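seq/struct pair 1
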Amino acid sequence: MFGYQRTIVAIFTFFAVILFSGCVENLISIHILPDGTPSIEFTSRGDSTDIFDNDFSHPPPGLPWSLNVYNELVDDSVVWIKETSGYLTNPADTVYLSSAPGRLNHFFTITMSTGLFATRYNLNYTFEGRRVYQKYPLLGREILNDFQGDSTIWLPEVLNYVLGKALNDMAGLPSTNYSENFLEHLENHFKNYFSRIQYSQQSEELSHNTRSIIIDALQPFQSRLTPGFTDTLLQAVYPYEREFETTINLYDDHFRVLAMLPGTMTTTNADSVLTDTLIWNFSVGEVLNDDLVIQASSVMYFQTRVQKLALGIIILISLTVFITSFWKKKRL
């Protein structure tokens, strides 16, 4: 195998190795108070690498969020716990909990509407799908099969997507000064380049970096490239590389969402209900492609107003019956 092929395999094999570094348990608790404001807590448990890679983002520390990170010994292993909690005073607008490149974006909207006799509450919490089957379907199939197959099945597809998207982004940058035809030629070159990959290298080669991939692949074009081209391409590659890395890192993460809403539940897609707590359980497999939307609605009636209404209806009916009976007797 050529040296540049070994470098490519080494870099992206590194992301696959992350699969076996351990899993993370993520718990999100949402408690909506009667005034519509929610108390929210995020808790992630796992090893230090998984907890601090921020693939699943907690809200950034600072008002209204407080952060607590600590570790504990469990069965002779160190488990790290990351807790973020906050009390939102104005949740009516959609709250985005991640916007960094490649991370698992999740956002929620909590609405409250008050009528004459009741207040209605609605929770919509969306975990954004990774769109894996649109970007690299062979990788999606391999994830669902617990990575039992050969990485050469899906690796070229991922590499082609990452470099293809980066070059497409560069086509829209006036600073690159390269024609679309030239960038398309480069994209075809990368496809041919990656198609020759054969997996045979060991972990000692994992120290190479993405820059090595780009430089090696561009060797035939060096005389036609400006000095800053490689750096620009690396910058364009980063968000797609990070996106792929995050999908791999989230492979064995597990999520549990607990929600408590005021009043009586009217609709929900919860997996289960424990007394007054709604529970959803899922893993990254459920967001490989499409969004996962958590939904719950409840209603809290104003008992006094309802009772007054009921009493008024009873009195009205009674009066109607009395008056009708009175007029019937009078006519007789």
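seq/struct pair 2
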Amino acid sequence: MNPDRIAALYARAFASSVGWGAEDFRAVLATPGAFLVHGPHAFALGRMAADEVELLLMATDPAWRRQGRAQRVLRAFEDEARARGAVTMFLEVSKANRAARALYHWAGWTEVGRRENYYSVAGGPREVALVLRKDLP
């Protein structure tokens, strides 16, 4: 999946967000430790430093949601993180994103903090980000 396709999928998945463009994805993917896991109509982008991985973004095309695609991509992301030597993973998720929060809860992530007024939303107030953590066995 190339940066243009990633950006297009991201734009569909997060239409109300101030989003990332193809150049943003290109830049992140060029940084040391960055990796992308994808399946049909879904992706997860992360970055590893030392023995920690941050899940930067995860998206599923809205037309293909509720079919287990996000679960499969998240599992693949965790497997890739483990294969790279990660022992701990972190992510930030909007408190308002109930579907994502349910997915992460299902996958064993736990809340360890929050960032007030973190996410920009087009035409709306800034949203709280929940910081989640998962230790890899």
